[in-house]
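Input (structure):
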């Protein structure tokens, strides 16, 4: 594609020296598991998220799974999750043996609906042991309302912040709202490793200690296994590379916001394309720039023919996936169901030029004017 959907090579080129330096320095230490780079990155990421603790883990999915386990979610429990997210959010609930209770989204923000949370709490009562909102597309979920519902129900909130590194909601960063926050460093996330990686954030000292032990074989002392744990650690090589990249994250996120602003300006006059709600008292980090559009599939083909990549996040609501179809139907989740037919992610990454944004918008204009 002339304008690709992501461009990791363009991200790497200007920071090559920093990344290679970090990589070779780590190789020289031969501390491939745990060690000073993991510790340093955990501290730096905790301070970036403005929380007390960060615990490196193998990937974002395991971050969620370990977090649910750490707050005691297990078989027969229910966890509230949005019906509109990446499969990993739901998988994590299933893997601790709990029942995912799908909640429809607020169609304006694509995030879990606080009213939907209230009804699910009424319906599932004491069975609910956690609420797991996702800050989808880099848009913080409605944390005030969500935390109020969670407090009333007496259950913890675990944030899926895999798409929201560095966003803000009423001044505060994702990862610091819930009892635990979960991040992914999958290569195309706002902060990406050269492979898989994940992080759990928390302000709770006891949970932090427990999670550190849990992801390292339940070791409560050297070769003392206090409980049955896991091997889910952040690789030292990834930590070293992520440390080198973290200082660039705010600049990258600012550029994503600028691109979103340009799209907003250009697409405002295009009634066939609807933008998500403005941020309100939040700072978005536009992991994806997702619009709703008329004749979505045709538009996507038209863009592809013009050499422009676009993507559908997601082609199905959670309950429409074969793996999760037992948990709901279209009638119960009208907003997520509708989103699946309308959403389109336009190219949005820091290295995208203003000219490319213009070209994408020109191609969208051409589609709707030439084939009305
Ligand atoms: C990427 C992602 C995950 C999973 O992260 P991995 O590191 O790929 O396991 C979880 N939730 C959401 C919303 C994601 O986008």
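Output (sequence):
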């Amino acid at each position: 594609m002339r304008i690709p959907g992501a461009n990791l090579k363009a991200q790497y080129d200007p920071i090559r020296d920093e990344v290679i330096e970090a990589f070779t320095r780590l190789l020289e230490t031969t501390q491939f598991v745990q060690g000073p780079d993991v510790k340093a990155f955990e501290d730096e990421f905790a301070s970036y998220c403005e929380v007390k603790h960060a615990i490196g883990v193998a990937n974002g999915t395991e971050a969620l799974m370990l977090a649910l386990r750490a707050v005691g979610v297990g078989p027969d429990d229910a966890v509230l999750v949005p019906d509109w997210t990446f499969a990993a959010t739901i998988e994590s609930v299933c893997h601790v043996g709990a029942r995912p209770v799908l909640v429809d989204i607020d169609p304006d923000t694509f995030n879990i609906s606080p009213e939907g949370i209230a009804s699910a709490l009424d319906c599932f009562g004491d069975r609910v042991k956690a609420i797991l909102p996702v800050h989808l597309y880099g848009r913080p979920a409605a944390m005030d309302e969500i935390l109020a519902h969670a407090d009333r129900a007496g259950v913890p909130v675990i944030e899926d912040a895999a798409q929201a590194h560095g966003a803000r909601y009423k001044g505060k960063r994702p990862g610091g709202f819930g009892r635990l926050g979960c991040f992914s460093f999958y290569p195309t996330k706002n902060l990406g490793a050269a492979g898989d990686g994940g992080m759990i954030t928390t302000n709770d000292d006891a949970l932090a200690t427990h999670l550190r032990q849990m992801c390292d074989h339940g070791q409560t002392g050297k070769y003392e296994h206090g409980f049955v744990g896991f091997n889910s650690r952040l690789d030292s090589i990834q930590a070293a590379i992520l440390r080198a990249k973290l200082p660039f994250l705010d600049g990258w996120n600012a550029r994503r916001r600028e691109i979103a602003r340009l799209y907003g300006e250009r697409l405002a006059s295009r009634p066939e394309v609807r933008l998500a709600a403005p941020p309100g008292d939040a700072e978005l980090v536009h992991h994806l720039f997702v619009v709703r559009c008329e004749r979505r599939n045709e538009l996507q083909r038209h863009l592809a023919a013009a050499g422009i990549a676009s993507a559908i996040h997601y082609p199905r609501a959670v309950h429409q996936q074969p793996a999760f179809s037992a948990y709901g139907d279209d009638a119960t989740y009208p907003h997520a169901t509708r989103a699946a037919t309308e959403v389109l992610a336009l190219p949005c990454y820091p290295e995208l030029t203003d000219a490319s944004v213009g070209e994408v918008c020109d191609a969208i204009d051409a589609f709707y004017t030439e084939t009305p």
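Notes: The CA atoms of residues 21 and 132 lie 38 Å apart. The chain has 13 helices and 14 strands.
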